[in-house]
Amino acid sequence: MTASAAGTRLAHRWHTARDYDTLARRIQFRNAELVAGLHPQPHEVAGAYEIGCGTGALTEALVRRLPVAEIDAVDISADMLAVAAGKPWPQRVRFSQGAFPDVPRERRYDAVFSNAALHWMHPRYPEVFAAINELLADGGLVCAATAGRTPATERFAETCRAALAPLSGLCEPDEFEARRLTLDEAAELSRAAGFTIDDAFVLERTVLVTTDTYARWWVASGGPWTATQVPAETSVDALTTALGGVGREVELVHASVFLRLRKQGPVERA
Ligand SMILES: C[S@@+](CC[C@H](N)C(=O)[O-])C[C@H]1O[C@@H](n2cnc3c(N)ncnc32)[C@H](O)[C@@H]1O
After folding, report:
1. Ligand 1 pocket mutation, candidates 21, 65, 75, criterion most atoms within 8 A of CB
2. Is 69 a pocket residue for ligand 1 (Cβ < 6 Å)?
3. Residue 178: pLDDT band by 50, 70, 90 thresholds?
4. Residue 153 belongs to domain spanning
5. Methyltransferase domain spans which residues (predicted)?
6. Fewer CB within 10 Å, N side or C side of the chain?
7. Torsions phi, psi of 88, nearest 5?
8. Is residue 268 in some structural domain?
């Protein structure tokens, strides 16, 4: 089958938006609940901004947890936003398409939230943290999770690289590993952007998934094939085979850095 006959091409990373809610349920939906729960005074948030809302996993958690907040949610992908738009939302939620940090920043919010999106903005992390700071009112909070780097994610990446090595020609080196932050790196970026750190921790988990689920999830998340414009199903099949064939269970290692950051107010002078 040629790429055009396949109909689905990796023209951008989030081409399988319709699969996302199924594939991401065990990890990202749980992380979204944790991110929403990082805010200590949810009843006091009047205005919240969400970066990289995707199909609305975190947005849903925010609607439940922040009873009065107006929520502005932005995402770069029209496909992900279209899935979000198909769900029922209260009027206080507004979705818009935009590429963070290149978005208007006239308004100030009480809180900025993000789950599993900031790493897609690498290598612009410093600019991204500065833009988040600019969006916040003094004393405002950031509650976010982004891809984490741990010894276990390094080992996992190495195993995947070895499994994919025979597929050269189909796959190209993926930059994903460069997107991961250690806890120290996340703390450094936060302080450099003018935040104090209320809380910062890494959550690492190992999830047993079948090879085909794993392959689908990886390809949906960008995976190693973004540069080559290979049909999504070809990529999924190749990766499934490389990992040992359909139905076999593999251990997926996932790590996220969670942050609760506070924007410092103006320094009081005696
Ligand atoms: C893994 S999904 C996470 C979606 C959602 N936050 C969740 O918890 O399920 C990452 C999302 O980030 C979005 N994204 C990537 N780069 C972006 C950017 N520069 N600005 C806005 N959204 C972006 C993608 O389109 C995708 O919807």
Report:
1. 75
2. no
3. confident
4. 3-263
5. 50-140
6. C
7. -80, 130
8. no
Which CATH number covers residue 257?
Answer: 3.40.50.150
Q: Are 145 and 31 in contact (CB under 8 A)?
A: yes
Query: Confidence band (pLDDT; 50, 70, 90) for 73?
Result: very high
| Residue in the structure block whose two tokens are 């006091």 | 44
How far is residue 95's CA from residue 148's CA, in Å, rounded to a whole number? 27
Count the domains in the chain.
1
User: Residue 175 CA to chain centroid, in angstroms?
Assistant: 15
Tens digit of pLDDT for each residue in 11-62? 334 446 677 777 777 788 899 999 999 999 999 999 999 999 999 999 999 9
Q: How far is CA 38 from the centre of its chain?
A: 16
pLDDT, tens digit, 9 for 90 and up, residues 122-175? 999 999 999 999 999 999 999 999 999 999 999 888 877 777 666 655 555 556
Q: Is residue 270 part of a domain?
A: no
> What does the pLDDT look like over 3-13, one tens digit per residue?
333 333 333 34
Tokens coding 7: 């109909």
* SS3 of residue 246 by DSSP: coil
Instruction: Judge if the beta carbon of residue 60 lies within 6 A of ligand 1.
Output: no
CA 167/CA 163 separation, integer angstroms: 8
Answer whether 120 contacts ligand 1 (Cβ < 6 A): yes
Which residues, listed in sequence order, are joined to residue 51 by a DSSP beta bridge?
A: 74, 114
Asked if residue 53 is part of any domain, the answer here is yes
